[in-house]
């Protein structure tokens, strides 16, 4: 009787442990794709990309690292508290990207391609407050060039940037 009781208890505890740990293990297996995050719609040259916003130091540090893909017309907007020269690299970033540096008035000042996993720094030539990462070639394919204007929705303008 004692053996069957121990087997029943160990099975019970194993099942409880599996129920508790499974969601945790799933969350550690990979990072979410951008479509799983809150996104905002920008307006650039009559194109309407949806972007996840990185406005805290932690979010800006992680960026699009470890992502496997971007949904079509989706990207990440990095926002800084004030204009400065910004520098980005592609460490742990699997997706080929293009980056647009954008000043406080919403004007794109520079666009550069960025190769996956590259440790090359892509630094803005001018002081800017925003950087927009999209799938490589997205800006070219959509006729967006240096000088194009980015219109930000009110929700982005009202974020408390850290």
User: How many β strands by DSSP?
Assistant: 10
Number of helices: 4
Report the mean per-residue pLDDT as an integer: 85
User: Could you give the distance between the termini?
Assistant: 62 Å
CATH architecture of the largest domain: Sandwich
Query: How many strands, what sense, and barrel or not for the largest sheet?
Result: 6 strands, mixed
The chain-level structural class is: alpha+beta
Key descriptive features of the protein:
162 residues; 2 domains; six-stranded mixed β-sheet; two-stranded antiparallel sheet; 4 helices; 10 strands; globular
Descriptive account of the structure:
The protein is α+β, with helices and mostly antiparallel strands. The model is unreliable at 12-36 (pLDDT under 50). The chain contains 4 helices and 10 strands. The chain has helices spanning 2-28, 57-62, 138-141, 154-157, and strands at 40-41, 43-44, 50-54, 74-84, 87-88, 97-102, 108-114, 122-123, 128-135, 150-151. Helices cover 25% and strands 29% of the residues. It has 2 domains: 1-30; 34-157, Protein of unknown function DUF192 (Jelly Rolls), CATH 2.60.120. β6 (97-102) and β7 (108-114) form a beta hairpin. The chain starts with a helix and ends in a 5-residue tail after the last helix.
